[in-house]
Design a protein that fits this description.
With about 270 residues, this protein is mainly alpha-helical. It folds into 2 domains: about 5-200, no CATH class; about 205-260, no CATH class. The protein is built from 11 helices and no strands. α2 packs parallel to α4 (about 75-90) and α3 packs across α5 (about 90-130). It is globular. The termini are far apart. About 25% of the residues are buried.
Length: about 270
C-alpha cells in the first residue's frame, strides 16, 4: 500500500495538533494510544493503529515531562509506527520496532524546540514589563510554532522518504549535536526540580525531602518504591496535622467552657 499525499498532509497536521494539545487543552493528554487510533483512521486501519498506540502507551505509563525534562516522544512514534505498519504490510511488530527509534530521536528535537521557544518567552517577558498586551498575545501564539515544527517537519520527511530516513537520521546525527542536546536534556530536569522546590514548603518538610533523597541516591530504591514511600510519609504528615488541629479545637473548646462557667461571656 502506498501512502497518498493527502494522508501525509493529514498526518503532519495531526502531529502538530497533538503536540499543541499536550501543551494546552490536553484533550488527548499526549497519549500514544490516541495518536495511534487517529493515525489508523487516516490510514484506514484502526486496528493496527490501536495495537501500535496501546503497546507504546504501556512504555510511558507513569512517565511525565515534569520540570522541563524530555522523554521519548512515543506520540510521534505511534504515528510513524502505524503508518509504516500499514504501508509495509509487515504488521504491528514492525511498526513498533520503527516507532521506538523515532521516539528516541524526538527527545533531541524536543530539547531543540524548548531552546527555540526561549526566544519567544523572553519577548513575552519584555512585553509584560511595558504592558503591551497585543505583543504578549502575539508572542505566545508564535511560541507554538517551534513546537509544531519540531513534530511536523520530521514526520513529513519520514513519510515522504520512507523508513530508511529514520535509521539514517538516528545513526548519522553529528556527535556534537547529540552530545550537546543530551547535556541540555540532562540539565533540564535538575532545573525543573529546583524551580519546583522553590514553590514547595521545603523548610517545613526538609526531613521528608532528605529521606527521599537518601533512598533514591544511596539505597537505589526504584521509582515505584519512592512513590510508595512518599505516600506513606504524606499519610503520616496528614495525620499529624489532623491531630494538631483537633488538639487546638479541643483546647479552644475547653477555654470557652471555662469562660462560660466563670460568667466571663454573660451579658
Amino acid at each position: 500500500m502506498e501512502i497518498q499525499m493527502w494522508q501525509i498532509i493529514a498526518l503532519t497536521i495531526l502531529s502538530m495538533i497533538l503536540i499543541w494539545d499536550s501543551l494546552s487543552t490536553a484533550v488527548f493528554d499526549g497519549k500514544p494510544i490516541f495518536a495511534g487510533i487517529l493515525a489508523g483512521v487516516i490510514m484506514g486501519d484502526v486496528a493496527v493503529g490501536l495495537a501500535v498506540g496501546a503497546t507504546l502507551q504501556l512504555m510511558v505509563l507513569g512517565v511525565g515531562t515534569y520540570g522541563g525534562s524530555s522523554m521519548p516522544d512515543y506520540l510521534t512514534g505511534a504515528i510513524i509506527g502505524t503508518v509504516f505498519a500499514v504501508t509495509s504490510g509487515q504488521g504491528v511488530d514492525f511498526g513498533i520496532g520503527l516507532a521506538v527509534p523515532v521516539g528516541l530521536l524526538m527527545v533531541n528535537l524536543d530539547v531543540l524546540a524548548r531552546f527555540c521557544n526561549v526566544f519567544f518567552a523572553k519577548r513575552v517577558e519584555a512585553a509584560i514589563e511595558r504592558l503591551d498586551y497585543a505583543a504578549i498575545k502575539r508572542n505566545i501564539w508564535l511560541g507554538l510554532v517551534p513546537w509544531g515544527l519540531s513534530r511536523a517537519l520530521p514526520i513529513f520527511i519520514m513519510l515522504v522518504f520512507g523508513e530508511d530516513i529514520v535509521n539514517g537520521l538516528v545513526s548519522n546525527m553529528p556527535e556534537w549535536l547529540t552530545g550537546g542536546l543530551s547535556v541540555a536534556g540532562g540539565l533540564l530536569p535538575a532545573v525543573g526540580i529546583a524551580i519546583l522546590l522553590r514553590y514547595l514548603p521545603v523548610k517545613k518538610y526538609i526531613s521528608y525531602l532528605l529521606i527521599g533523597f537518601f533512598a533514591a541516591a544511596y539505597l537505589a530504591v526504584p521509582m515505584v518504591g519512592i512513590a510508595i514511600l512518599g505516600v506513606a510519609m504524606a499519610v503520616i504528615a496528614f495525620r499529624q496535622s489532623l491531630n494538631g488541629n483537633q488538639a487546638v479545637v479541643a483546647a479552644n473548646s475547653g477555654v470557652s467552657q471555662e469562660g462560660l462557667l466563670d460568667g466571663e461571656y454573660e451579658d
